[in-house]
Design brief:
This protein has helices spanning 4-30, 33-41, 51-65, 69-88, 103-118. By secondary structure, the chain is mainly alpha-helical. α1 (4-30) crosses α5, α3 runs antiparallel to α4 (69-88) and α4 (69-88) runs antiparallel to α5. The longest helix is centred in the N-terminal third of the chain and has 27 residues, at 4-30. The radius of gyration is 15 Å and the shape is globular.
């Protein structure tokens, strides 16, 4: 019999993977020029921008399916740490309407950490 914990893990995986996948699809359609510019201004090589496809397309699909969700969540978490560093510089400044400027990537980072700790649950390809 399914437990509430298994349903919660499924909802966490679907929301995390589904929402970040929109960012990845946008980059597939429009390219990674913005990421390249941020990497270049940070003194890093531009070819690293292609890693965003791994972190925002491949990893979310694995998270949604529950296929090696912990590993995929680690990839997403690293992707979010790099995004926070490049876009905000780990600044805790406030946005226009009062929330933290880094709120969205920080939430994705926290959600990926939760998946790492909780696993994928009963409703997953790996079923753990």
């Amino acid at each position: 019999m399914p437990t509430n914990a298994d349903i919660a893990k499924l909802l966490l995986r679907l929301s995390t993977g589904g929402l970040i996948l929109f960012h990845g699809v946008h980059k597939v359609i429009h390219g990674t020029s913005g990421v390249k510019a941020m990497l270049s201004s940070a003194g890093l090589p531009e070819f690293l921008s292609y890693g965003v496809y791994l972190g925002e397309v491949v990893a979310p699909i694995f998270i949604i399916l529950g296929l090696y969700a912990r590993v995929a969540s680690m990839v997403l978490g690293v992707n979010m740490l790099i995004a926070i560093f490049l876009a905000y510089g780990f600044s805790l400044s406030l946005a226009k309407y009062g929330g933290l400027a880094i709120e969205s990537p920080l939430l994705f980072l926290i959600m990926s950490i939760l998946i790492i700790f909780l696993g994928s649950g009963k409703y997953s390809v790996n079923n753990k």
